[in-house]
Specification:
Belongs to the phosphoglycerate kinase family. One of its GO terms (cellular component) is cytosol. The chain is of the alpha/beta class. Helices cover 37% and strands 12% of the residues. The strands form 3 sheets. It has a 6-stranded parallel beta sheet. The longest helix is centred in the first third of the chain and has 17 residues. The radius of gyration is 23 Å and the shape is elongated. Bound molecules: adenosine monophosphate. The site of adenosine monophosphate has 16 residues, from β12.
Length: 483
């Protein structure tokens, strides 16, 4: 049986960060005017009732309930989806729970897990379920198999899962069928059965209703904790919800929503967004969405050269998207119209070739010579950006400031990571919105101090763009409570 711990909080964040987030939470949550003005954004994400007073009261009540009941990191603002934390022993004891997690871990040639972050991230939800007497049927994908592919089996997950849960996790050789049904039937209360890679069936990604029905037939209720695949409507992320009630969010999914939706929909101000990365085309949606909410927008990375060119500056051989010049101009105009301080770097580190050993120098952004390309933001920009960030209470960061994979051009990105760490320690809510910015804060060794590090790539980006995630929409709405 599982160790008798009642903790359901995410172990990814140090408790100090969680407490900090919670400490910031209450005033935000009670800012009814703020919630109302941001309501359309929240509604698009399936936060249907966020504009109505009962739910605002409900959210506020849940924050204070959580604070007193120690139910986990509901810190910044609670989402209006039913959560696994809402299910207690009376709902769970003896029940078969289908848990969709994201156990898509990297494996080396000997099938050893080289990074167990995703396994650890799945543990709080599973522990909550088994500690309350549920029988957990655990499902995930791994890699991109084409049919049954032994190297993408979930078998290598069993030892680490067992160790972290303190029980012997059982493993099925399939994810549907008679053998699996027998194993489910003999699963004890508090037991965990890991199903085989759900993507061994092409029906999974096709969201085939018959396949979804077969998966769902194994269980009584459903928990989705796979944030990384919540932007895909697959059989195990969306299809099964049609057959299992309740269908609720796991702690990891809930926390991602709390920060990437809640904290951004109703931020403690001033609120700054830092957007970097290679191309403006891949971040249009994020920039447009954040322009609606932030007070300060800092731009870095390869995309800045499209903005400079649009402003009539020469950019040498820097990355430019010629077909996005008008877009850059319109984004600058939009920022101005909305009163958002949009800062472009004042200086850049340029290189004579795209290589780690390129010759480099710092020049003003307006003086990039022909034949040179900008690969990082310069020291003046780091100072200006840091000063601007120093005035904020909430910061979201998506995309590196330069080609941080090359040490020579990682300085700007690393300086921003360090600045955010410093701000985080002084109580600013710092959200690292997935992808390469996560790699950057990990490289600098400051991931642990951030308020939230998103575990999703595509899913984080879609949330930041204000899109609906099918895997979230499909979950049951939280029931408003009388206060
Ligand atoms: P994204 O996936 O859009 O966030 O882009 C991340 C990539 O942008 C990283 O691989 C960086 O190397 C790249 N990048 C950042 N700055 C630049 C730049 N100035 N020129 C070219 N690529 C860049």
């Amino acid at each position: 049986m599982a160790a008798a711990t009642s903790s359901t909080s995410l172990s990814l964040l140090p408790s100090s960060s969680r407490q900090r987030a919670s400490a910031h939470a209450a005033p935000n949550c009670l800012n009814v005017a703020g919630l109302r003005s941001r309501a359309p954004f929240a509604r698009r994400l399936g936060f249907a009732g966020v504009a109505v007073d009962p739910l605002v009261a409900h959210v506020a009540a849940r924050i204070s309930n959580v604070a007193s009941a120690g139910k986990g990191p509901r810190g910044v603002v609670s989402m209006a989806k039913k959560s696994v934390g809402d299910l207690s022993a009376s709902d769970l004891k003896g029940k078969k729970v289908f848990v969709r997690a994201d156990l898509n871990v990297p494996l080396d040639d000997n099938q050893n897990i080289t990074d167990d972050t995703r396994v650890r991230a799945a543990i709080p939800t599973i522990k909550h379920l088994i500690n309350n007497g549920a029988k957990v049927i655990l499902s995930s994908h791994l890699g991109r198999p084409k049919g049954v592919t032994p190297k993408f089996s979930l078998k290598p997950l069993v030892p680490r899962l067992s160790e972290l849960l303190g029980i012997t996790v059982q493993k099925a050789d399939d994810c549907i069928g008679e053998e699996v049904e027998k194993m489910v039937a003999s699963l004890p209360e508090g037991g965990v059965l890991l199903l085989e890679n759900v993507r061994f069936y092409k029906e999974e990604e096709k969201n085939d209703p018959e396949f979804a029905k077969k998966l769902a037939s194994l269980a009584d209720l459903y928990v989705n904790d796979a944030f990384g695949t919540a932007h895909r409507a697959h059989a195990s992320t969306e299809g099964v919800t049609k057959y299992l009630k309740p269908s609720v969010a796991g702690f990891l999914l809930q926390k991602e929503l709390d920060y990437l939706v809640g904290a951004i929909a109703n931020p403690k101000r001033p609120f700054a967004a830092i957007v970097g990365g290679s191309k403006v085309s891949s971040k249009i949606g994020v920039i447009e969405s954040l322009l609606e909410k932030c007070d300060i927008l800092l731009l870095g990375g390869g995309m800045i050269f499209t903005f400079y060119k649009a402003k009539g500056l020469s950019v040498g051989s820097s990355l430019v998207e010629e077909d996005k010049l008008d877009l850059a101009t319109s984004l600058l105009a939009k920022a101005k119209a909305k009163g958002v301080s949009l800062l472009l770097p004042s200086d850049v580190v340029i290189a004579d070739k795209f290589a780690p050993d390129a010759n480099s120098k710092v020049v003003p952004s307006s003086a990039i010579p022909d034949g040179w390309m900008g690969l990082d933001i310069g020291p003046d920009s780091v100072k200006t950006f840091s000063d601007a960030l120093g005035t904020t209470k909430t910061v979201i960061w998506n995309g590196p400031m330069g080609v941080f994979e090359f040490d020579k051009f990682a300085v700007g990105t690393e300086a921003i990571a360090k600045k955010l760490a410093e701000l985080s320690k002084s109580g600013v809510t710092t959200i690292i919105g997935g992808g390469d910015s996560v790699a950057a804060v990990e490289k600098v060794g400051v991931a642990d101090v951030m308020s939230h590090i998103s575990t999703g790539g595509g899913a984080s980006l879609e949330l930041l763009e204000g899109k609906e995630l099918p895997g979230v929409l499909a979950l049951d709405e939280a029931t408003p409570v009388a206060v």
